[in-house]
Input
Amino acid sequence: MDLPKLHRERAVDAVYAVLRQAIVSHGMKPGERLNVDELAAQLGVSLTPVRGAIQQLATEGLVEIRPRSGTFVASLTAQDLDETFRIRCALECLAVEDAVHNIDVGGLRKLRDLLKTLRKPVKSDDDRQMHERANLELHQVILDASGNRRLQEMYSALNAHIKIARIHASESGWATRLQDEQLEHEEIVAGLEARDAARTVKAMRKHVYRAKDDLLAALEEPANAE
Ligand SMILES: [Zn+2]
Output
């Protein structure tokens, strides 16, 4: 049995976490060139974990590796966002159609608990992180309840949450939309509880498209105009 070398694994993970945070928080700007040697020197590690981390960031769409040109922080355009959210909507609507029939009492209870967490006021960065985690989890519970593994894989490959985080990180109006979001989530959960597929799909479509429109508007904000 081949076991991974632990110290190396940890270095890759650590470099990955630092770079991911820098990109999501706009410490590194879209289009900025990543120099492997400089990053390794700055972080005090060898080239291998930096290359590994960059590879992983590229898989997630945060970094673009352009042959013969270099490695860059991926840009995030209105078109990227539009395409991502249209696919997200199709996948999540399909997921709720099945989840309406499949979700069990435990799943519904979990959703109600998450709604409670999401109702808490968001004042600090910690609140915000907790809110985003609960939001992600709510969508994940529904995807899991669909029982469709391929759908779940396609959804996770979209990396919609990373794109959302990149925009939220430099956006001012995020918290003002929490009320819309809460009402939409409530309606989705109520639809699932009523086992009403048409109602739940409608609520999910409204939720995802409203989020898309708001993110597109936020992308046009000066702080994001790079
Ligand atoms: Zn949501």
